[in-house]
Amino acid sequence: MSKPSKHWVFERIFGGLFYALGLWFVCAVTQLVGTTQLEAKAWLAEPTNTALMILFVISGVLHHRFHLQEVFTDYIHNAGVYKAASCLLKLVSVVLIAAGIFAIYTVTITG
Amino acid sequence: MPKDANDKRPLSPHLQVYRPQITSVLSISYRITGVASAFGLFILALWLLSIADIGIAYDGLLDIMNTGLGRIVLYGLAFCHLFHVIGGIRHLAWDFGLGFNLKTVSITGWLSVLVTLGLTAALIMATLPNSMDLLP
Q: At CB < 8 A and 24+ separation, what contacts does B126-132 make?
């Protein structure tokens, strides 16, 4: 598979995954409005929620990364700026996923 | 952007020279809402960190979210997310070559706008009473 078609396919795979998880997330968060930190912790520490939230963070960040990369490709016409923006995008994506998983992991071990 | 700067790729159409139509308006809105949704990921990360007590206080974050501006941002993000998710159905159908008929495109376009507005209203109504309890 060529690089562009890989991008196309992966954007849709993560889009689809993010899609299903997004529906779960909206329902879950609507229920969580107004909960205390302890309640939120208990909710997040439930194994199903832990697993889904990790997948939600990963698929969400990756889907947006693909999407933004495409926007950069279409609108940034300066090679240097494009390269810098792409690197920044990669960096922010990694940081967001790492921060999210670290937080979820901390909640599951501290309870 | 191509690696070789001389490799000319077609430019995206310049929006301002065309009369707005449901197709073009939804197309660019789909992009804009997708990009806007990305900012929600920062809030998601902050929220998760706050639950875990890392670097940011849960109550403090909730206080910010419960201000008028915080609500507008959150509901705005919810709208963008829903718009993009609903519009995504059309885009996925197009990827399989379905629904390209101009009339179909127009109908699904307007339908997606209605569904998005309906779902956003439902979400606001579902969460607004709860958040009111939190206000002093």
A: B126/A30, B127/A30, B127/A33, B130/A33, B130/A34, B131/A33, B131/A34, B131/B66, B131/B71
Interface contact B58-A40, CB threshold 8 A: yes
User: Pick from A15, A74, A107: which is nearest to B51 by CB?
Assistant: A107
Work out the pLDDT band at A6, boundaries 50, 70, 90: confident
A37 vs chain B: nearest CA distance in angstroms? 6
Distances (CA, A) of A22 to A27, B44, B84, B101, B103: 9, 12, 11, 29, 30
Cα of B114 to nearest chain A Cα, Å: 18
> Which own/partner contact pairs does A47-56 have at CB distance under 8 Å and 24+ positions apart?
A50/A104, A50/A107, A50/A108, A52/A21, A52/A24, A52/A25, A53/A100, A53/A104, A53/B48, A54/A100, A54/A101, A54/A104, A55/A17, A55/A21, A56/A18, A56/A21, A56/A22, A56/A24, A56/A25
Contact B34 A64 (CB under 8 A): yes
pLDDT given for residue A19 in this prediction: 82
Q: What is the pLDDT of residues B102-121, one digit of tens each?
A: 899 999 999 999 999 999 99
Judged by CB atoms closer than 8 Å, whether chains meet at A99 and B42 is answered as no
ipTM: 0.89
